[in-house]
Amino acid sequence: MASVCSENNDVSAIFFDLDNTLIQTRKCDTRTCNKFIEMLEQEYGLPKEMAVESAASFLRAFRARPDDDSFAFEEWPAHLWRNSLPKNYRHLAKTLSTEWLKYRYQNLTLSNDVIHLLESLREDYLLGLITNGPSRAQWYKIDRLGLRKYFDCVLVSGDLPWEKPDQHIFLEACKLLNVEPRTCIMVGDRLDTDIKGGKKAELGGTIWVPLQKEEQSSILPDFTIDKVTELPEVLSNSPKLKRCARTSTVC
C-alpha cells in the first residue's frame, strides 16, 4: 500500500476526528438505546411499542442536539426524555437522564487497540484532535474518556468561530503545533467535514474511515481504511519525523 506523503514532505502531524473515528459514538449510543428499551419495558412497565418509540425519539433528539447551554448539563437529557415519553411517564425523565449518562459512558470508551495506536504514534508525530460539537458536551466527553493526554492540541468547534469543514479550524491546529499544513494529515469518518475540510486547508493527506462504505460523494479522500487502527499501514513507507520536545498544548 502506498503511504501518505505530500510533495516529498514527511508527515509531521496527524489530526483525528473524535466521534465515530476514535470512539464508536453512534454504535455505542444505539447499544445504550437498546438497553433503555428493555429498562422502560421491564422496570417501568411501558408497553413494548411505547418503549421502543420513546427511546428512539430520545435518541433522535439527542443526536440532533446533544447539549443546550440554556439548561444545566444533566438537565438537558432530562428535558429530551420528558419530550419523548408518554405524558403519564414523564415523571421518569430525571431518573432516565441520570441512567443515560451512566450507561452511555460504560459503552463509550477508547478501545485498547486505539489507545495503543495513539501512544505509538505520539512517539513519532504530533497529534491533534479536531472535533465538531457543543463545547460543554464535547469537553465532558474528552475529559470523561481521559483523552487530553494523548494529544498535543485539542480543538472543539463550540469554542471557536469555525467548525469542520471550514479550513480555518485545521489551520488553527497547524498554527498551534507550529507545522505546515502540507506536512499534516486528517483522519475522520465524514467526507463532508473531515475530508472536505482537510482538502480545503490543503493538508498533505486525508484518510477516510467510513461508517458506511456505500456512501457516494464527489469528495474523494487520499486513502480509505476500514478502521482507524489500520492507519499505520498508510504511514509505514513515510519517513517519520521525531517529535520536537515541547509542552503539550490543549487549546
UniProtKB/TrEMBL annotation:
Biological processes per GO annotation: N-acetylneuraminate biosynthetic process
Protein origin, superkingdom: Eukaryota
This protein's UniProt keywords: Hydrolase, Magnesium
Keyword Methyltransferase appears in the UniProt entry: no
Cofactor section: Mg(2+)
Alphabetized GO MF terms: N-acylneuraminate-9-phosphatase activity
Database matches in SUPFAM superfamilies: HAD-like
Keyword Magnesium assigned: yes
Entry-linked InterPro entries: HAD-like_hydrolase, HAD-like_sf, HAD-SF_hydro_IA, HAD-SF_hydro_IA_CTE7, HAD_sf
Classification via PANTHER family: N-ACYLNEURAMINATE-9-PHOSPHATASE (PTHR46470:SF3)
Entry protein name: N-acylneuraminate-9-phosphatase isoform X1
Source species: Galleria mellonella
